[in-house]
Design a protein that fits this description.
The protein is mainly α. It is 80% helix and 0% strand. The chain has one domain: Growth Hormone, Chain: A (Up-down Bundle), CATH 1.20.1250.
C-alpha cells in the first residue's frame, strides 16, 4: 500500500517531469522559430514581433491561472498547459505559405499561455507536496524544480538548433508534438485529481487582496527581473554582435550556456545559503528575508563594475564574460530565495492564487525590462542599461528590506 509520503514523492516526480517536458519544447521552439525565419530572410524586428504576445500574455495568464487553479485544481491547469503547447506546435505544421508573422504570433501566444500555466501550477504544487514540517525540504524542492527548468531551457536552445540542422523545421515540430502528447496522456491519467483545489470557490476579488509581505515580495520580484532583462534580453545580444563582432551562432551559444549555468547554480543555491536551513518556519523566513536582502545588495554592485570596465575600455569581451558569470551566479541565488519565499509565505489554501499573483509581477518585470532594454540601448547605449539595472536591483533590495520584521 502506498504511503502519503511516497504518494507525494510520486506526484512531485510527475509534476517535475511535466515541467521538464514543456520547458524543453519551449526552449527548442524559440530557437527553431528564430533560426528558421531568419534563414527565410525575415528581419530581426519581424522575428521579435513573433514573441511579443508570448511575453504579454504571461501577465494575464499568471494572474488568472492562480485563480482558476484554486477553483478547478492545479492538475487541470497543468494538463491544460500541456494541451495548449501541443496545439501551439500543431499550428506550425501548416503549409509554409500560411506561416505568416501574424500566424506565428498567435502560435507563440498560445505557447506563452501554456508555459505560464504549467509553471504556476508546478511551483504551487511543490508547496502542497513537500514535507510541511521541514522548511529546508521545501527550499531544496523549489531549487531543484526552478534550477532544472532553466538548465533544460538552455538545453532546449541547443536541441532546437540541432533538430533544425538535421531534420528541418516541420519534422522537428512533429517530433515535439509526438513526444509531448505522450507526456500529456500519461499526466491525464496519473496526476492527482484534487491537487490544490479549494473546498470553497474563491472570490475573484482575492486576486488583489494580498498581505503587505506578499505585495512587497512581488514588487521585489518585478524589479529584480526587470533589472536582468533591461540589459540581457535585447541590449546584450545586439552589443555582442555589433561591438564585439560575434556571429549569431556565437551569441546564441553563449547565451544558452549562460542559461544552463544559471539553472545549475539555482539547483545548488541551498548549499550557498546554508543559514536558511533546519529551523522553524518563522525563524527560516526571517533568515531568508535577510539573506535575500544581502544577496540583492551584492548583485546591485556587479552591473556597476561591468559598466566601469567597459567605460574604461578594458578588455571588453573579458569584462562581459566574467561580469556575466558573476551576475548569473548571484542572480540565480536571488531567484531561488525568492521562489522559496513565495511558497513559504503562502498558506496551502491560498498558494495557487498567491503564486499566480507573484509570477504575474515576474511577467510584468520581464515585459518592462524588455521594453526598457530596447529603448534605453537605442537612446543612451549599453552602459546606461547596466546602470539602470543596478538602480532596479536597489529598488528590489529596498522592497525586500523589512520583511524579516513581518511574520506571515
Amino acid at each position: 500500500m502506498q504511503t502519503p509520503r511516497s504518494s507525494n514523492l510520486a506526484q512531485y516526480a510527475l509534476v517535475t517531469g511535466n515541467y521538464w517536458a514543456l520547458t524543453l519544447t519551449d526552449g527548442a521552439l524559440r530557437m527553431l522559430v528564430v533560426l528558421h525565419f531568419y534563414s527565410l530572410g525575415y528581419d530581426a524586428f519581424s522575428i521579435a514581433l513573433m514573441f511579443l504576445f508570448y511575453e504579454l500574455f504571461g501577465v494575464v495568464t499568471n494572474l488568472l491561472g492562480g485563480y482558476f487553479g484554486a477553483r478547478v485544481g492545479l492538475n487541470r491547469i497543468m494538463n491544460i498547459g500541456l494541451g495548449l503547447q501541443i496545439v501551439a506546435l500543431c499550428m506550425l505544421l501548416v503549409s509554409p505559405h500560411m506561416l505568416t508573422v501574424a500566424w506565428v504570433m498567435a502560435a507563440q501566444a498560445l505557447s506563452g499561455i501554456a508555459k505560464d500555466l504549467n509553471k504556476m501550477s508546478a511551483k504551487s504544487a511543490v508547496k502542497l507536496l513537500a514535507p510541511s514540517h521541514q522548511s529546508s525540504s521545501l527550499y531544496r524542492a523549489v531549487a531543484l524544480l526552478t534550477g532544472s527548468k532553466n538548465t533544460l531551457k538552455g538545453v532546449g536552445f541547443f536541441m532546437g538548433g540541432a533538430l533544425l540542422a538535421s531534420i528541418g523545421f516541420t519534422s522537428s515540430i512533429l517530433i515535439m508534438v509526438i513526444g509531448l502528447s505522450i507526456v500529456w496522456l500519461f499526466s491525464l491519467v496519473s496526476l492527482k485529481a484534487d491537487l490544490g483545489r479549494h473546498k470553497h470557490k474563491p472570490n475573484i476579488a482575492l486576486l488583489f487582496s494580498k498581505s503587505s509581505a506578499i505585495n512587497r515580495l512581488s514588487g521585489a520580484r518585478l524589479c529584480l527581473f526587470a533589472a536582468r532583462d533591461v540589459w540581457f534580453v535585447v541590449a546584450l545580444p545586439v552589443y555582442l554582435a555589433q561591438q564585439l563582432v560575434w556571429t549569431h551562432w556565437q551569441v546564441s551559444s553563449f547565451l544558452a550556456m549562460w542559461v544552463i549555468g544559471y539553472g545549475l547554480v539555482q539547483v545548488v543555491a541551498p548549499l550557498l545559503t546554508q543559514s536558511v536551513h533546519n529551523k522553524s518556519l518563522t525563524q527560516t523566513l526571517k533568515v531568508a528575508h535577510k539573506s535575500a536582502f544581502k544577496w540583492q545588495s551584492m548583485l546591485s554592485i556587479i552591473p556597476i563594475v561591468i559598466a566601469y570596465g567597459l567605460y574604461m575600455q578594458w578588455q571588453n569581451s573579458v569584462v562581459l564574460i566574467l561580469g556575466l558569470g558573476a551576475f548569473g551566479i548571484v542572480f540565480a541565488v536571488n531567484s531561488s530565495l525568492h521562489s522559496y519565499l513565495i511558497l513559504a509565505m503562502s498558506t496551502k489554501s491560498e498558494v495557487a492564487m498567491d503564486v499566480g499573483f507573484y509570477y504575474m509581477a515576474n511577467a510584468c518585470g520581464r515585459l518592462l525590462g524588455t521594453l526598457l532594454s530596447g529603448f534605453v540601448f537605442l537612446q543612451f547605449g549599453f552602459i546606461a542599461c547596466l546602470l539602470l539595472s543596478s538602480i532596479l536591483i536597489v529598488c528590489a533590495a529596498l522592497a525586500t528590506y523589512g520583511l524579516a520584521k513581518q511574520t506571515p
